Amino acid sequence: MSDLIPKHGGYRKLKSFQLAQLCYDITVRFCDKYIDRRSRTHDQMVQAARSGVQNIAEGSQASATSKKMELKLTQVARASLEELKLDYEDFLRQRALAQWERENPLRQALIDRRCQTADQVAVWVLEVAKNSGHRRQDGRRGQKAEMSTESTSSTLSTRIYPKLSANAALVLLAVACSLLDRQVERLAQDFENEGGFTERLYKVRTAKRRSQP
């Protein structure tokens, strides 16, 4: 790779891309299961999730000739995931389902699980749901009888599974957004310190002229 066109792409190795892609896969499943496919919300959530993934990839590829475009597209990806977070929060609020607080141990438990696929997240949700008869959903110990009525298959399907699934998606989105915030900050610093394609082009042409007799 020349000095003019530096290494670029490689987005598949970015943790932010991997998490955004996981959130996209989860969102497609979540929307197909819990959101009316004919509703605008279904399409908007899926498109926001897809935008997060696609813009990270496009920005990484565009970095070959435009650091400014890479910065802009990465920020678009971040904004798309923020929009998706709001949709999940709305889903919980509108159905009177509690959103996990930051101190909820289930949040860290999911992060520590380091799920790489939507299937792995689904397995985790299933495990937590099965244990719901022994632990209240807000993460605190409670009376077993308190959950007895919530342990029926009907309630698991209509209340606990969507609640766990939406909260799990929010946890992973929060991590992805945090990574993108750091990525945007680093890109901004690099652009400020090193400039972009125009500056590289000037340096290469200047060096070439100086090397000629």
Number of strands: 0
- Average pLDDT reading: 83
Give the overall form.
elongated
The biggest sheet amounts to:
none
What's the total helix number?
Answer: 7
Helix content: over 70%
What is the total number of structural domains?
A: 1
Q: How far apart are the termini?
A: 25 Å
Offer a concise description of the structure:
With 213 residues, the protein is mainly alpha-helical.
Keywords for this entry:
single chain, 213 residues, elongated
How would you describe this protein?
The protein is mostly helical and 213 residues long. It has one domain. It is 70% helix and 0% strand. It has seven helices and no strands. The chain has helices at residues 15-34, 40-62, 67-94, 105-113, 118-130, 153-194, 197-211. Helix 1 runs antiparallel to helix 6. The chain is elongated and about 80 Å long. Mean pLDDT is 83; it is low at 134-151.
Topology:
Layout: H1 15-34, H2 40-62, H3 67-94, H4 105-113, H5 118-130, H6 153-194, H7 197-211
Helix pairs in contact: 1-2, 1-6, 2-3, 3-6, 5-6
